[in-house]
Amino acid sequence: MKIVRFAHDEAIRYGILDGTELVTLAGDPMYTGYDTTGERVSLNEVTLLAPVIPRSKIVAVGRNYRDHAAEFGNEVPAEPLLFFKPNTSVIGPGDAIVRPAQSQQVDFEGELAVIIGKVTRNVASEQALEHVFGYTVANDVTARDLQRSDGQWARAKGFDTFCPLGPAVETEFDLDAAQVVSRVNGEEKQRAPLTDMVHGVADLIAYASAAFTLLPGDVILTGTPAGVGPLVAGDVVEIEIDGLGILRNLVRDI
Known about the structure:
SH3 type barrels, Rv2993c-like_N, Fumarylacetoacetate hydrolase family protein, metal ion binding, Fumarylacetoacetase_C_sf, acetylpyruvate hydrolase activity
């Protein structure tokens, strides 16, 4: 089931994608549950938004693909390398990634995003996937020069517009059969199966939940493969994951 968040008739709502139509929902599926309203609306009549705006946090994982760690001369950490992105960095499909004046190198990073569905604390890897609401596509946009100069990643990863998500949340997804592909202006830059992750989704949830409670709507970004690179104003960046769709964003300067 693919769930989208959309704007229509000056209201923001959720819907289930059914071909070229949306079955509209009453309620917020990530937080309060939902029922179908019986109403349908054409996909062509709506504006898709980020499918979730975390009320709490975005947990991201660094160096979770060996080839990506190697392309920057880094070792793969023995345990997941976690950092946070603020929820104010989230944008949706079609929104603009804005290159801030403070940075001279803004990179794309195509990733799988995991949406937590219930309160999760100290969960074992064997039960971790039971706590997932669904999956979507993410772009962990990074001010690479600031990441190097700051010595930590909060600013480099946290600018407004630096966490595109979408286009939909898929509640049924085969992690072992999909790959992530990134393109800039139609030219392929990244391609890797999700099975190339050093630490898989279940282990990431278990590891994070042993440190801090994960709440419904929290997002986990699972890391990016090799091939990341800079974006300039006017670029169109696409991140695609089999079964989840294509997340497409334009790039502009501030």
